[in-house]
Each structure stands twice: as structure tokens, then as C-alpha cells.
Design a protein that fits this description.
This protein has 197 residues and is mostly helical. It contains ten helices and two strands, in the order ααααααααββαα. Strand 1 (139-140) and strand 2 form a beta hairpin.
């Protein structure tokens, strides 16, 4: 199967957390819930969306790293036969088909980075890729938040990165797409989001 069952995915995240404990797994749980809530209203497969959101950062299982986690997650998922999760592991960090726009400095091997760049350039992003990209920006480790809050949080941690305004504009285009698909502001679908405004 191109992705695991929900229970397998939840067990996988627990295993990954034991390998590399951290708030990234709490963040992943909220990304999964956001994907599920929005997918239900957008008439997508909510279970599939939940699994993709839960495992989008699976590459972080290897330990503390930057963008190397996209490649590590891809390789691990391909080994497991989870092709669709492997794709999400790669695409969640790239809003454009140009990996240079998503990563100021890759922290892995040169041949890995060349593979990532080629993969992203050749990949067609679908609604599940876009949903995970969006929900990755709607979840902190302690709950749901508006995208602006998450973007500021990332900027405070990593500094002002190249192409930042381009990426922010693209993210809000994706949000507008899902607002329209859901027939409402998607923030309305995330319980307790006002507590994080």
C-alpha cells in the first residue's frame, strides 16, 4: 500500500519519537488533525489526509537536522513501500517546483540535495501535497494557530530567509484555494484556534 493504516502511522510516530524525542511529534499530531478537519469539508479522503499530516516530518526520526529530513523521510518511506508518504515527506517543505526557493542551505550530502532538487522540479503537487503544506503552517506543538503566527515563529527561530515574501504569498494562495474549496475560512474548522491568535 502506498501509505500505512491510521493505527500503523500512529505507531510509527511513537517509534520515531523514541528515536528522536522532541516537540516535532506534537506538531505532527496537530498537522494531522488540521489536515483531517479541512479534508472532511473539502470532500477529500480525511483518513488519508490525517496519515499524510501525521507522517510529513517522518525524516526527523534520524535526529536533529534541518532540511535533510525531507530526503531521510523519502528514503525511509520508499523502503517501507509508502510511496505517497514518501512524496509528502519531500513536497511539504517546497511551495514551488524549485527547491532552491525552499532551502537556503541543505544540511546533508551533495548527492542527496541533487536528488531533492530534481525530484521537486519534476513533481506535480496535488491537493494532498498542498493541504499538508498549508497545515504545516497552522500547527504549533501546543495547538492550532493562524498561519501568520507560525510564520513569525519560524522566522524568529531561523531568521529572514531568501524568497520569504514569495513563499508567504504562495502559502496564502494555497489557503485561499482551500477556503474556496471548503466554502468558508478554513480557520473556522480548527477548534480552539482563537486561543492561539
Amino acid at each position: 500500500m502506498a501509505y500505512p493504516s491510521r493505527s500503523e502511522a500512529e505507531k510509527e510516530l511513537e517509534l520515531d519519537n523514541s528515536l528522536n524525542p522532541g516537540v516535532w511529534t506534537d506538531h505532527s499530531r496537530f498537522v494531522a488533525k488540521a489536515c483531517e478537519f479541512i479534508a472532511k469539508t473539502a470532500e477529500m479522503d480525511a483518513n488519508k489526509a490525517y496519515i499524510f499530516g501525521l507522517l510529513h516530518d517522518i525524516g526527523r526520526r534520524i535526529g536533529r537536522c534541518g532540511q535533510k529530513h525531507v530526503y531521510a523521510g523519502y528514503v525511509y518511506c520508499m523502503e517501507k513501500g509508502w510511496d505517497e508518504v514518501a512524496k509528502i515527506s519531500m513536497t511539504h517543505s517546497f511551495l514551488f517546483n524549485d527547491a532552491e526557493i525552499g532551502v537556503p542551505k541543505y544540511d546533508g550530502l551533495t548527492q542527496e540535495w541533487l536528488f531533492v532538487k530534481d525530484y521537486i522540479q519534476k513533481t506535480s503537487f496535488d491537493d494532498y501535497d498542498r493541504l499538508v503544506q498549508l497545515c504545516d503552517s497552522l500547527a504549533n506543538p501546543n495547538g492550532f494557530c493562524i498561519a501568520e503566527k507560525r510564520l513569525v515563529d519560524i522566522t524568529l527561530r531561523y531568521g529572514i530567509l531568501p524568497h520569504m515574501v514569495e513563499k508567504w504569498k504562495k502559502l496564502f494562495e494555497i489557503k485561499a484555494y482551500f477556503d474556496e474549496k471548503c466554502g468558508q475560512n478554513i480557520y473556522n474548522l480548527l477548534p480552539g484556534i482563537e486561543k492561539n491568535l
